[in-house]
Description:
By secondary structure, the chain is mainly β. The protein has no helices and 6 strands. Strands 1, 2, 3, 4, 5 and 6 form a 6-stranded antiparallel β-sheet that branches.
Amino acid sequence: MNDEPLVRGHRVTYLPGKRKPGPQRLCRRGIVTGPPVLDTDTDVTWVPVQADGTHETVAEWVPTDAIIDVVAPT
Length: 74
């Protein structure tokens, strides 16, 4: 991941955490839906991401160390 701060609209590729129902993939893609949040207890920064192809209204929280590629909105 590059050093540019993540903001709403960035497209990200990330490694999924827990297995979810349906076809399993090595990577997922999605769009950042809000600002990153630092969990000061664990020192992990989490990013809300709406995964491509989902219709869920709640974003998936992805740790920044699981994000492997970022593309800024155009």
